[in-house]
Fold this protein.
Amino acid sequence: MSSAADIAPGPALVTIDGLRVVVSATGETILPSVSCAIPAGQIVGLAGETGSGKSTLGLSLLGFTPPGLRVADGSIEVLGHPMLTLPAAQLRELRGGAVSYVPQDPAAALNPALRVGDFMAEVLAAHGVSDREVRQERIAELFAAVGLPDTAGFARRYPHELSGGQQQRVAIAIAFALEPRLVVMDEPTTGLDVSTTLAVVDLVRRLSHDAGASVVFVSHDLRLLMTFADRILVLLQGEVVDDVAAGRFADEITHPYSRRLLASLPRTDRRSPRVAGPERPAIGLELAAVSARYGSTVVTHDVNLRVAVGECVALVGESGSGKTTLARCVAGFHDDYDGDVALMDKAVPRSLTRRSAAERATVQYVFQNPDASLNPRRGVGESVALAARQTRGLSRRESRAEALRLLERVGLRRDHLGALPHELSGGQRQRIALARALAADPDVLVCDEVTSSLDVSVQAEIVRLLQELQWERGLTMLFITHDLALAQVIAARTVVLLHGEVVEQGDSRTVLHDPQHDYTRTLVEAARATHVGE
Amino acid sequence: MIVRRLLAAVLMLFVVSLVVFVLTQALPGDVVRQMLGQSATADQVARLRAELGLDQPLIAQYLSWAGDLLHGDLGVSLTSGEQVSTMIGSRLGATASLVVVTFALMVPCAFVLGIAAARRPGGVIDHVVSGAVTVILSLPEFVVGILLIVLLATGAFRILPPTSVIPAGQSLWQHPQLLILPVLTLVVTALPYLTESVKSAMRDELGSEYIRWARLSGIRESRLVIRHALRNALAPSLQVSAMTLTYLLGGTVAIEVVFNYPGIGSALVSAVTDRDVPVVQGIVMIVAAASLVVYVVADLLALIVTPRARRRAQ
């Protein structure tokens, strides 16, 4: 077994010097010139947006350059081995052994035709664990260590028989199978929900601590990195612009891009004293004494509402309570009102036609019925790409790449790109509608009964997706619904509207469990009736 | 699932029998007149017609034919008076030999070449395979056969017999050299397409995420290709192999005529010329049934190698 033990540790575990990676065909630069060092036993977060070259940098630590790219200059030393010039046989020994990798999407990275235990055994065998029984024992041990059943039955399962979280645990178990010194993880939590993400991160921390392994954790999720990494490298267009201790990230960063990344984080603790620099908007959405009219009929009366940046507020009421009208005022679809609407601390013109392109992109609206809001003759990928072009002025190529990224983010497959809306399910269409809204890269998202035309199970999926997206992007969200129980799931704060007036507002839990207004009580009854047995 | 596929195959066979029956009825010319010659009287013609059951309504004719078919009775040849089954039987072996030998040579070649081409996209083998597909697809098999005869039998090199006539009373296997040219022709026509299919299936798999991860986990290249990629490329390749096999069953007709090969293909052509309806029907039904069997077997094999589909099937 050629594992970590017989490789002499250098001064630093990893030394990257002047690494330059370009596109082979065009010479376009992916990484201009990266230099950094990683000591043993550290968890290093590699942060940056899509296209910042963070995955390419991560893969280069395994001596791997993705097809189509080429290393033009520089050197990488891992455990004293020159990864870029190492003979293939030695490189193979290192990979999966002393230097291992956890892929972004384990569903795609696990061979559908191989049982998970068999693949793991194969990795062990490839690194010299030739005894069958030893392998079997080690597999059970590893599965137990990552919190999976250590039974032979589990090892005999195929990847498609596991949940997403289980697949990721299998991938992590394989990466830690041979006492690695360095584990590269490429966005390993992207497809997972929030609670699974936290469990996976916890696991990574424990395993790396036990094994004394360094972890390079590639992620666009700065908040996640701040909670569990030792150090964070911020990558911008292939350059390391900041390299600071994770615990002092906010104080030590110097580059404006890092500040921007930090500022775009949603705030979970609004009472925290270190919020709100003067230049940063604190209120994502504000309605000040809004009275909306249809001709001479007034439908809302002096409604005041504030939603902090990164907060989600539910607006609850029956049909006709004026909640959709308010939302339409926010989006600029309805301009016949008194009072003011402000987005990101800036008052905006009433009518959409008088708002600037930036103001239009700031707020995006997701409708109740995706069938009616998607062009039936346009491929859904093109619908999303078109939104990105029109709101952000992206080129055709960029917008298509963005559409693909968003589609995958909302849980659709690459091959859905060319599908027409009617070829997709209702839940999938609502996902497309979400992706299209996100294509504008909005600060504020208005969701108008987005789940009410969907089946209950699909509803739950969409709500979870919304929660993730809001968390990831720090979206300010106005969530309109008639369902108080749903409001409590997604929003911290609930505002109840009756006949165009706010009759009750407060913490969602309190509103649901201890309603003050009679009308709220009837809504609670209604919610109980529809959620029997939950 | 398996039962459903078998049922579908049986239903298909029934539809084929209907189509075959109707189409053979539509063959031009009158078999009775042909049998009796121009001098036959109207009375003689009517008598023979009644004897052969040809004066019955079409539905009755179909039912009696299909009923006999179910008992394994293919009827009697109108021209030779022989049982169709014995007539076809001897020739069936010759055709089956041709198809099986061709297929057995072709499949390993296709997989070896296809995998080699997929491992080096843009390499020499890749280009040769793609080029060969384009050229061969535009050439009918009889043209390939004739070109090979000119090249290897009558023209440049005279090393092989141009026709495959077996002396009376001897079997094909006493003259294996007679097989070479027909087999070669079929291999040349069908190999590029199968190779291209294997190549593209393998290329998709080799470019996949799971291959990248297995490579980054230190798995050897040879294992990546055989154990990891090929396993997933097998199901689509099996389907194409089945298609190729059924193509060969049909493709032998032209080849057998070109080489005067004593199989069911050449028998079919002469039966059509003679308006020998029972022989035509028998041969077509046998070829159709064989094709269906091939597809069902390929489906089952694909199920076996794809764990995901296997679970769905349960």
Summary: The mean pLDDT of chain B is 85.
